[in-house]
Amino acid sequence: MFENKQVPLEKIDDYRFRIPKSYKQGMRVDGIIYADEKLLKDILHDKAIEQVANVAFLPGIVEASIAMPDIHWGYGFPIGGVAATDPENGGVVSPGGVGFDINCGVRMLKTNFQFDEIKGRIKDLIYVLFSDVPSGVGSEGDIRVSQREERQLLVKGAKWAVEHGYGVPDDLECTEEFGAMEGADPAAVSERAYERGKSQSGTLGSGNHFLEIQVIDQLYDQEICDAFGLTLGQVTIMIHSGSRGLGYQICDDYVKSMIRCLEKYMIEVPDRQLACAPVDSPEGKAYLAAMKCAANYAWANRQCLMYLTRRSFERVFDMPWQKMGMNLIYDVAHNIAKIERHSVGKTEKNLCVHRKGATRAFGPGHPALPERYRKTGQPVIIPGDMGRNSYLLVGTQKAMDETFGSACHGAGRLMSRTHATRSINADDLLKELESKGIIVKASGRGTIVEEAPQAYKNVNDVVDVVHNSGIAKRVCRMKPVGVIKG
Amino acid sequence: MSPKSYQLLEHTADIYIRVKAKDLKSLFVNSAEAMFDISTSAKKPISKEKITFPISQTAVNKEELFINWLNELLSLSAVKKTIFTDFKIKKFSENTIEADVSGISAENFEIKTEIKAATYHDLVLKSEGKKWIAEVIFDV
Fold first, then answer.
1. Three-state SS at A485
2. What pLDDT shows up at residue A1?
């Protein structure tokens, strides 16, 4: 039995711990944390565990309030939290269970290059990418969208980008939800949100958002690597971004309206950032319709970012991206709420699954997956920090059985930004990374320090838990060689 | 603003601050100043041309009013590409705030950290002796 600030933790097995629902009056289900004892020590440092318990108060929550091994203290939900609610039993949707950066997510594409063939060109690539891919706070791109088109973009998502020449139809098949959620309603988005997201399509943003050139340094599942066309030493690219100002404003607008819903629907939650409304209420429906717009915007954004990346490679290598084999492997959301079909006990139900810093990880045979991934399971992309590794995994049946088809989303922060800023020197860090063969370009020096490897948990430990617990299966590991930070 | 009107507290992922003021109304001003101080740094020489916008917010209690005020400032700052430096509160109660906020074009600033929103999580607004204290977490 572990004790943290009076939160009792029961060990279920080597990779799971339980917060019994008896911990706090009002918890409707247990909390389940995926971690081993090593990671648990880091998790106990902050208030994330308390937040797992708070999420268990949500009306209609089923099975458990789940936390992934990259869990850390957020606001409302912990980052790395998963919760499913049953709309037939008063289940709610909470904007705080999605966050301000709606459909923050990551995509991974491959190339035909072996690192040895182009290692002398990585610096050129990073400088061209840094100049061609807008990054940083409030960055604006060259991809201009008229007001009328903006509404189409919010409905069509990545398909809008492909229709406008920023990709090919095959890209959509390799994107979660095929790049657009159905039911997005531009009328549910405020004028202020439109204004705040204007001119930000095809921009990376700031903070932990990045674009990385990586190299595969370890294969775990040869059969799946063969199926995905991945080999040792192959150069891959990872893009991490979200819905920018549009998503922030939509979340802000709907948290404001849902605070009122707590009284209206007599909902008691221990944290007002968990403000929510029944999924089937007018407020719940309006939020989901607006959230889907932001999600679609984010998929269009990452599609445009990939277009700019392909174009940069074309400039450097003077050949079309198709010849360089720059095909998308997959794109996953990690801040989202979705109506999905899952088993609860012996019954199949439509549930509202919140993933706040968690990745969908559907197993083999799932009907939501494109044909090419039906046999393997859905690709699950786990970025690490800029000095260590990132991973490609696939979803499993066990994830379907235990976590509503979800896995972790990254390494998870360990050190506060203020601590990182106080204790890390940017020049020393850049030198250290360069000595490891990693070239970094960032919009601001502050970002470099805040995003330093030591500010994060070791992604290898996090992925070990995910793999060993069986909720996703390791396919291959990448290491960074070139990094652009927003 | 007195640079000592706020201090940074530890938070794993986001920015957590404690702000002090002599009364609730000043606490709103000091918190707004702290928010822009954390996220921006003025380039030199800085333009003296200021733009002013009216802000009006209502809420059922002071906590909601506080969050609405800060988030409206963040939103307006993003849309108007303006960093706010002056906050003149014309009307104030625990449920209402009316203010003229003035700022300088964002081009004159280096943006250190993008604050997405102020959140309710662990929000504290309290009076202690002769001081008012706010503790707020910003999503970054």
1. strand
2. 43
Q: In which residue ranges of chain B is pLDDT below 70?
A: 1-4
Mutate to test the interface with B, among A192, A248, A253 (most CBs of B within 10 A): A248
What pLDDT does A148 receive? Answer: 83
pLDDT at B111: 86
Complex confidence, ipTM: 0.94
Q: How far, in whole angstroms, is CA A360 from its chain's centroid?
A: 9
Give the DSSP H or E segment for A248: helix A244-264
- In the predicted model, residues of chain A with pLDDT beneath 70 are 1-5, 136-139
Structure-block tokens of residue A376 = 């393997």
A2-485 CATH pick, 3.40.50.9100, 3.50.50.60, 2.40.30.170, 3.90.1860.10 = 3.90.1860.10
* Torsion sign across C-alpha atoms A308, A313, A319, A325: negative
pLDDT of residue A191: 95
Task: Give the pLDDT score at A137.
Answer: 63
Compute the distance between CA of residue A332 and CA of residue A299 in angstroms, rounded to an integer: 9
Picking from A203, A416, A485 by the largest number of B CB atoms within 10 A of its own CB, the best residue to mutate is A416
Query: How many angstroms away from the CA of B10 is the closest CA of chain A?
Result: 6
CATH number at residue B97: 3.55.10.10
Alpha-carbon distance A253 to B68, whole Å?
A: 10
Instruction: Cite the active site residues of A.
Output: 409
- Which of B10, B114, B137 lies closest to A75 in CB terms? B137
The alpha carbon of residue A186 and the mean position of all alpha carbons in its chain are separated, in whole angstroms, by 23
Q: So what's the pLDDT on residue A138? A: 65
